[in-house]
Amino acid sequence: MLYGMYVSAAGALASSYKQDVIANNLANAETVSFKRDLALLKSRATEAEENGQSRYTADLLEGIGGGTFALPTYTDFSPGGLERTGNDYDVAMTKSGFFQVGQGDEVAYTRDGRFMADEQGNLVTVAGNFPVLG
Question: Can you name the residues that pair with 123 across neighbouring β-strands?
Fold first, then answer.
């Protein structure tokens, strides 16, 4: 009976993880350049299947499997919908890639294509005034 409880708990945790990922996607749906995450789940083989020790188990237990595990989230970088902004400096990517921007001495990457010209005429990000590199 304990085995069934562990399998059930693994399924409940995986379901909770999936709900968290979906909730994050919904909360950020209107965020500029946000890319949705995908919750990946995997079924686990039973301990006896993994170790080849079928003599220590029962057919009834093997039939219910080893539970479900959550894998690391996968970020979907496919392009989203485009919308005309009227700003001559705004750009969009239709393929994979990132814009390089300077953050102090470091290089950061963004898919947010909202840009503007600063006082010196340099192209910078709208959020944070980071200079666009290259």
Answer: 117
Distance between CA atoms of residues 41 and 77, nearest Å: 19
CA 41 to chain centre: 13
Strands (E), 47-89: 68-70, 74-75
Which percentage of the chain shows pLDDT scores above 90? 40
Distance CA 122, CA 115 (A): 10
> Which residues 6+ apart lie within 8 Å of 133 measured at CB?
100, 101, 102, 107
CB 130 within 8 A of CB 107: no
Within 10 angstroms of residue 69's Cβ, the number of other Cβ atoms is: 15
HSE-CB for 6 with a 13 A CA cutoff: 9
Amino acid 55: pLDDT: 59
Return the pLDDT at 115. Answer: 94
Distance, in Å, from the CA atom of 118 to the CA atom of 38, rounded to the nearest integer, reads: 37
